[in-house]
């Protein structure tokens, strides 16, 4: 599977669209792995286009769209359009999935509260969750394509979102239907892999466009479905398409006014896709130190040494939020200074979300009691460049310039917390008190031969010019914030004297 940049996304997620370019040949995993293993560091990387997987344009352009209804933001509409870009007809399978994240196996929940999905009509499945209530996922027949004159109806597949212990660990499965069931059913033709009772915690609707020769060149297959709280009898395709087109128009208008200056269509499209990438990079992130260190009640306990390795000083951490990740595709992990940089462009389209991110990173369940900001998930105690004051003031000014609002409460709240972080830097990273700072890992562009976040093997400290420069920048940013606050609240004149010394 080969993904292109996300195409568009409205800031409130009322309309989102992205594109897969999917080869019609078998994906060349082994070829990519083996050839890159053979090459040396002096050779160019062997990439997917080098494999021939996309030769003669034998691939699918698959556009996936989602939209919200006017009167209920939890009514979600989906449309998948797959174009055959190749020179010949080709078969295609589109298999939308619905599943519940498996938290019931951890041992924290009563098994009687386990969520469920079951078939309730030929093209409808109903889900139930103790917090979310009931939802219905309803599918529409796909219009005929090519020589096939009949609509394509999906086959409803059900299983449990449980690990296949027998395959992975050579141990007995708790029950017969496991999470790899759909692959085994469709690809391996294992007819007993899915639950014949049409229920489970994982569900798929299998659209098979393989009658005759498949989808002709230049033509497309279309799949429509919706996730709803309403138990409707069918999907109104015309209404669904009209709603999506309305959301597209709203998104077009919004992004046009974000950049009203004369710009070429290409530049507007580049900017819009960049914003879309920021919106698609949001991700739910859950990290609780106590659970990470001690394991889950129903699972194999982690090794005792886990409590005494990295992150042992961050026992207060409780992360349970939607965060802007470095990249939800390649780098889906927590990294605070990446998030701070993200907030600058995010402030142009969604200043409330940008402010919430910066505020969150300084809250007491994130920030260490000594004032240090968490760095990244593999070692929260590492040191990164102090960019949060800069990001906070930039977000404040962007909102004021573009939306005519100045959120002084936000600026003051984060400023107060950053005073703690500034003090941490002064107390912890300037051991001799001469305003020459040590720091640690301060950016990918200056990685050294040894880990600067660890004590030096020769003893002593490593004074860094870039660390000292970052602290000078930090001080100037805090000074600017204090100047702004002092215009409205005279108490911050004291901060000006402190930062100017």
Automatic annotation (TrEMBL):
Keyword Iron found: no
Gene3D superfamilies from the UniProt entry: 1.50.10.10
Indicate where this protein resides in the cell: Endoplasmic reticulum membrane
Q: Keyword Protein biosynthesis on this protein?
A: no
Family matches, as InterPro entries: 6-hairpin_glycosidase_sf (IPR008928), 6hp_glycosidase-like_sf (IPR012341), Glycoside_hydrolase_63 (IPR004888), MGH1-like_GH (IPR054491)
Q: Which reactions are catalysed by this chain?
A: N(4)-(alpha-D-Glc-(1->2)-alpha-D-Glc-(1->3)-alpha-D-Glc-(1->3)-alpha-D-Man-(1->2)-alpha-D-Man-(1->2)-alpha-D-Man-(1->3)-[alpha-D-Man-(1->2)-alpha-D-Man-(1->3)-[alpha-D-Man-(1->2)-alpha-D-Man-(1->6)]-alpha-D-Man-(1->6)]-beta-D-Man-(1->4)-beta-D-GlcNAc-(1->4)-beta-D-GlcNAc)-L-asparaginyl-[protein] + H2O = N(4)-(alpha-D-Glc-(1->3)-alpha-D-Glc-(1->3)-alpha-D-Man-(1->2)-alpha-D-Man-(1->2)-alpha-D-Man-(1->3)-[alpha-D-Man-(1->2)-alpha-D-Man-(1->3)-[alpha-D-Man-(1->2)-alpha-D-Man-(1->6)]-alpha-D-Man-(1->6)]-beta-D-Man-(1->4)-beta-D-GlcNAc-(1->4)-beta-D-GlcNAc)-L-asparaginyl-[protein] + beta-D-glucose
Annotated membrane topology: Single-pass type II membrane protein
Role, per record: Cleaves the distal alpha 1,2-linked glucose residue from the Glc(3)Man(9)GlcNAc(2) oligosaccharide precursor.
Name the record gives this protein: Mannosyl-oligosaccharide glucosidase
């Amino acid at each position: 599977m080969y993904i292109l940049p996300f195409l568009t996304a409205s800031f409130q997620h009322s309309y989102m669209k992205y594109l897969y370019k999917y080869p019609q040949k078998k994906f060349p995993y082994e070829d990519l792995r083996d050839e890159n293993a053979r090459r040396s560091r002096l050779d160019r990387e062997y990439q997917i286009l080098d494999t021939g997987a996309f030769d003669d344009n034998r691939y699918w352009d698959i556009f996936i769209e989602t939209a919200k209804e006017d009167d209920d933001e939890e009514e979600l509409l989906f449309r998948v359009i797959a174009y055959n870009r190749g020179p010949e007809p080709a078969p295609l399978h589109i298999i939308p999935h619905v599943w519940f994240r498996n938290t019931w196996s951890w041992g924290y929940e009563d098994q009687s509260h386990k969520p469920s999905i079951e078939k309730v009509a030929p093209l409808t499945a109903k889900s139930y969750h103790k917090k979310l209530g009931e939802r219905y996922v309803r599918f529409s027949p796909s219009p005929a394509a090519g020589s096939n004159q009949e609509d394509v109806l999906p086959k409803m597949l059900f299983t449990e979102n449980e690990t296949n212990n027998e395959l992975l660990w050579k141990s007995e499965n708790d029950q017969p239907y496991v999470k790899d069931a759909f692959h085994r059913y469709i690809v391996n033709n294992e007819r007993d892999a899915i639950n014949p009772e049409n229920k489970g915690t994982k569900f798929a609707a299998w659209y098979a466009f393989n009658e005759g020769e498949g989808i002709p060149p230049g033509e497309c297959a279309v799949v429509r479905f919706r996730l709803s709280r309403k138990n409707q009898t069918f999907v109104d395709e015309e209404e669904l398409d009209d709603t999506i087109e309305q959301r597209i128009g709203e998104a077009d208008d919004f992004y046009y006014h974000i950049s009203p200056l004369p710009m070429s269509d290409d530049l507007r499209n580049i900017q819009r896709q960049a914003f879309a990438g920021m919106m698609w990079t949001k991700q739910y992130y859950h990290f609780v130190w106590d659970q990470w260190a001690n394991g889950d009640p129903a699972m194999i306990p982690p090794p005792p040494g886990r409590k005494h390795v990295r992150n042992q000083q961050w026992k207060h951490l409780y992360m349970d939020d939607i965060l802007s990740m470095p990249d939800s595709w390649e780098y889906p992990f927590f990294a605070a200074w990446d998030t701070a940089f993200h907030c600058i462009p995010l402030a142009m389209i969604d200043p409330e979300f940008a402010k919430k991110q910066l505020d969150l990173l300084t809250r007491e369940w994130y920030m260490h009691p000594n004032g240090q900001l968490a760095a990244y998930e593999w070692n929260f105690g590492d040191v990164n460049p102090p960019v949060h004051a800069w990001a906070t003031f930039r977000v404040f000014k962007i909102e004021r310039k573009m939306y005519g609002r100045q959120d002084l409460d936000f600026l003051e709240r984060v400023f107060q917390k950053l005073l703690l972080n500034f003090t941490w830097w002064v107390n912890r990273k300037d051991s001799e008190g001469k305003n020459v700072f040590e720091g640690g890992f301060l950016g990918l562009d200056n990685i050294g031969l040894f880990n600067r976040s660890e004590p030096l093997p020769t003893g002593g400290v490593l004074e860094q010019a870039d660390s000292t420069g970052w602290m000078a920048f930090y001080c100037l940013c805090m000074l600017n914030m204090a100047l702004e606050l002092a215009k409205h609240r005279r108490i911050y004149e004291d901060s000006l004297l402190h930062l100017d010394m």
